[in-house]
Amino acid sequence: MHVNYQRSRKVSAMNHLFGMTCATITPMFADGSIDLESAANLYRHLIASDVHCLYPNGTNSESLSLKKEEREALAQRCVREASDRAVVYIQCGALDVQESYSHVLHAKSIGADGAGLMTPVFFPVDEPGMKAYYTCALDLAQDFPVYVYNIASRTGNDVSVDLMSSLSSQYRNLLGIKFSSSDLQRLIQYVNIKGFDVLIGNDRLALACLRLGGKGYVSGPGAAFPRLYASLYEAFKAGELAKTMQIQQSITHILEQMKDIPEIPAIKYLLMRQGVIAHDTCRPPLRALTPDEKKQMDTLL
Known about the structure:
Layout: E1 19-23, H1 36-48, E2 53-55, H2 68-82, E3 87-91, H3 97-109, E4 114-118, H4 127-141, E5 146-150, H5 152-155, H6 161-170, E6 174-179, H7 184-191, E7 197-200, H8 206-211, E8 216-219, H9 226-237, H10 241-258, H11 263-273, H12 291-300
Parallel strand pairs: 1-2, 1-8, 2-3, 3-4, 4-5, 5-6, 6-7, 7-8
């Protein structure tokens, strides 16, 4: 039985995703089991580093390699550690559609601020199918906030601007989209949907997204450099354009150093080296970094 941490929240008081939203990794012991204490320490570390929002159980969490019960435990621990000090959205997309919906309801029951819902994966889904998928989720969620997660390069399925515009006008609890792409034209089209939040899932375009009217950026590598990543949004809100450009350049430099190295193992290694998590273990098919790759990551610290 799950402990119910649900908080009463009216639609008018929904907490939105904004600023630096960290797509967290899942800490694991050397045997590949979930390390909840390291996860809790990671969540506390990110909050203390001024990260605005936490987003567990997404791509960087290895969510599709986790059991349903493991994902629920991570979601519950994240909500508990945040304790209203940061906005928490749980990514709920899974290989099985019904499991995806169950994660949405679980996120609601534990008092998360909302759910992120990735498109179906692998099987091609046309426009009517995609509409049915999100309509069912939004109906189940009722007044619980939902963001669509569009990462077509991984899932094989895209989400059209027309569909988002239509559903956004119909459902008050559809707040926006996390768009993991480099397509700025599509980004602008999403931004132009009235009352629709857009966050970019591409660190290189974090500043571009903000300048085009987006609400923020969702980053995995930002977990290893949280203050730097959070400072980009704060400088932007303060109107410090030159500073934002310098910060974006620093972020881009980090990405250049990481570009030929497996991203999730690299983030875990960096967090382990900083003492935030105990191990850098990943589940197959992800592999550990080589000694040379570790040396390259050490230079970033």
